[in-house]
Specification:
CATH class of the largest domain: Alpha Beta
Helix content: 25-40%
Number of helices: 14
Number of strands: 14
CATH architecture of the largest domain: 3-Layer(aba) Sandwich
CATH superfamily of the largest domain: Alkaline Phosphatase, subunit A
CATH topology of the largest domain: Alkaline Phosphatase, subunit A
Structural class: alpha/beta
Radius of gyration: 21 Å
Strand order of the largest sheet: 4-5-1-6-8-2-9
C-alpha cells in the first residue's frame, strides 16, 4: 500500500469511528484568496472566516477548477473537472441530470439538506429535469430589510439557515449550502470609504493601475466581503446555539476570483486561487495552516467520506481527509503536487457566442496555461470586452491604452508559464526563458496527459462541442452571428 492509499484508508477508518457530522458549506461569489484578515490583508476584516481558520485549517493553496461561477459550482457538486461535465462545464447552460451530485447522495443517506442564495448557477436545471437546484432545495423566504447602503442581494442567508434548522427532523444530520451572492458586482461606489476603510493601505494587484478610483473600487469589494462574513457568522452562532458546532464540518470558500480585469474569468492566480478554511472540532486538529495543493473538485468526495459514504468512481476529485486529519502544518500530504483548471464560455462576449477555451496546471512553483483559441480576444470582442464585469476598475483599464490595457485585453499566446513564487500577479510570461524550459516541458506533458486521461474533448479532437452549448442568460445581438438564447448552435454540434 503506497502512502496516498494508506493516508486515505486511515482517514476513512477514523471518520467511521465518529458520529456523522453536520455539513455547512459557505461559498462567497467572486473573492480571491488573499482577501481575508486570516491571510494577512491589512484592510478587510473577516472575523468569522478567521474563526473557522483558527478552529481548524487555513488552506493556503486552494483552487477552483474554473474562474467562472457556474462551471466552478458544477465541479464542486459533482467532484469532476469542467471538461467532464458537458453543458455544465460552461456558463449559463444546462446542468445535465445524468451527473450525480453529493447533496443527493447525502439526502439518500438520511441527511436533511437545503440551500439559501446562490447554488448551482447560473444554469437551467429545471429543463434538464432537476426537481430543485442541484445544490439542494431552496430556503429563501427571509429577506434583508436593511442593506446598510450596499448593493447586496435580498436574501437574508442567516435567517434562512435558521429556518432550515427549525424544520430539521429530530436526530437527522444536516447539510446546508450557504450561497452568498456577495461580493459579486455591482458595488455601491464609495461604500468602503464611507465605512472608514483606509485606501492608502490597499494592496493593488500588479495587473491593475494604482489610482484612487481603483483603490476605492477595491474598498467597495472589501465592504461586500465583510457583509458575507457577517451573515456567515450568524450561521455559525445558530449552530453553536444548538450545541452542534463541535460535530459540524464547516467549509468556507468562494467560487472564483475577484470581479476585476485579469482576475475573474481568467485562469491566472487571482481568478482561480481562492480562500478556504475548514473546521470540524471533533475530528480535525485546529490552529493549522497547510500548503497542500487543493482542488475544489475535492469537496464532494470529502463530504461523502466524512458522512461514511462511498465515493463514486466517476468523481475525479479525492477526499481531503488525509490532509485535514494529519495534524500537520505546511505540507500535510506530499502527494498533492498539482491542481488543474479550465475555462470555456464565460458570458456572451464574442461573435457567434464563442468562448475562450483555456486549460491550466498549477504546481507548487509554476502556473502553466494553454490558450486553445489564441486568435480570440480573451476578455471578449472589443469594444464591449463583456467578459469583464462593469465597474470603475474596468473603466480605468479600458479607457486608456497602455500597459494595463494590454494585460487585460490584448490577445495572448498559445502558452503562458509563470513562476508564482516570484510573480504572483502573473505578469512575466516565461515561455521563452531558457532558465525555465525544462520545467515548461514537464508541465506541458503533465497537463496533456491528464486531460487525455480525463477525456477532455479539447484534446481529443471534439472540442468544438463546447461552442454549441446553449446560453440561457440574455444575449447581445450587437456582437453578431449566432445569438439565439436557449438554443444549441448547429454549426458546432456533433455530426453523427
Amino acid at each position: 500500500m503506497n502512502r496516498r492509499h494508506f493516508l486515505a484508508a486511515s482517514a476513512a477508518a477514523a471518520a467511521q469511528a465518529l458520529p456523522r457530522p453536520n455539513i455547512l458549506f459557505a461559498i462567497a461569489d467572486d473573492m480571491s484568496w488573499l482577501h481575508t484578515s486570516a491571510s494577512g490583508d491589512p484592510v478587510v476584516k473577516t472575523p468569522n472566516f478567521d474563526r473557522v481558520a483558527r478552529a481548524g485549517v487555513l488552506c493556503n493553496n486552494a483552487f477552483s477548477t474554473c474562474p467562472g461561477c457556474a462551471p466552478s459550482r458544477a465541479s464542486i457538486l459533482t467532484g469532476r473537472s469542467i471538461w467532464q461535465l458537458e453543458e455544465a462545464g460552461t456558463h449559463a447552460s444546462y446542468f445535465p441530470k445524468k451527473y450525480t451530485v453529493f447533496p443527493d447522495l447525502l439526502k439518500e443517506a438520511g441527511y436533511f439538506i437545503g440551500l439559501t442564495g446562490k447554488g448551482a448557477g447560473p444554469t437551467n436545471f429545471k429543463d434538464a429535469g432537476w426537481p430543485n437546484n442541484p445544490a439542494g432545495p431552496s430556503f429563501d423566504d427571509h429577506h434583508v430589510t436593511d442593506k446598510q447602503g450596499l448593493a447586496v442581494h435580498n436574501d437574508d442567508y442567516a435567517s434562512n439557515f435558521e429556518a432550515f434548522l427549525a424544520k430539521r427532523p429530530k436526530g437527522a444530520p444536516f447539510y446546508f449550502w450557504f450561497g452568498a451572492h456577495e461580493p459579486h458586482r455591482n458595488y455601491t461606489v464609495g461604500s468602503g470609504a464611507r465605512a472608514g476603510k483606509d485606501a492608502s493601505k490597499v494592496r493593488v494587484p500588479g495587473f491593475l493601475p494604482d489610482t484612487p478610483e481603483v483603490r476605492s473600487d477595491i474598498l467597495d469589494y472589501y465592504q461586500e466581503i465583510e457583509y458575507f462574513d457577517a451573515q456567515f457568522g450568524r450561521a455559525l452562532k445558530a449552530i453553536e446555539k444548538a450545541g452542534e458546532l463541535d460535530n459540524t464540518l464547516v467549509v468556507v470558500c468562494a467560487d472564483n476570483g475577484m470581479s476585476f480585469p485579469r482576475a475573474k474569468a481568467n485562469v491566472y492566480e487571482y481568478g482561480i486561487h481562492l480562500p478556504l478554511a475548514i473546521s470540524w472540532p471533533k475530528a480535525i486538529s485546529g490552529g493549522r495552516q497547510v500548503d497542500d495543493l487543493i482542488s475544489f473538485r475535492d469537496f464532494a468526495p470529502t463530504f461523502l467520506e466524512a458522512a461514511g459514504l462511498k465515493v463514486p468512481a466517476a468523481m475525479s476529485g479525492r477526499s481531503l481527509m488525509p490532509t485535514l486529519k494529519s495534524k500537520l502544518s505546511g505540507l500535510a500530504d506530499a502527494t498533492r503536487t498539482a491542481v488543474y483548471a479550465g475555462r470555456e464560455r464565460h458570458s456572451h462576449a464574442r461573435r457567434d457566442n464563442l468562448g475562450y477555451p483555456q486549460r491550466a496546471l498549477r504546481t507548487a512553483r509554476y502556473l502553466y496555461i494553454r490558450n486553445l483559441a489564441p486568435d480570440r480576444w480573451p476578455s471578449g470582442d472589443p469594444p464591449l470586452f463583456a467578459d469583464i464585469d462593469n465597474g470603475p476598475s474596468k473603466t480605468a483599464v479600458t479607457s486608456k491604452q497602455g500597459h494595463f490595457y494590454e494585460l487585460a485585453l490584448a490577445k495572448r499566446p498559445a502558452e503562458e508559464f509563470y513562476d508564482i513564487v516570484a510573480d504572483g500577479a502573473c505578469l512575466k510570461n516565461l515561455v521563452n526563458d531558457a532558465r525555465h524550459l525544462k520545467a515548461l516541458a514537464l508541465h506541458r506533458v503533465q497537463l496533456e496527459e491528464t486531460l487525455k486521461a480525463e477525456g477532455d474533448p479539447r484534446v481529443l479532437g471534439a472540442g468544438d462541442v463546447f461552442e454549441s452549448y446553449p446560453r440561457h442568460s440574455p444575449m447581445k445581438k450587437e456582437l453578431g452571428g449566432f445569438a439565439e438564447q436557449g438554443k444549441y448552435n448547429p454549426a458546432f454540434q456533433k455530426k453523427n
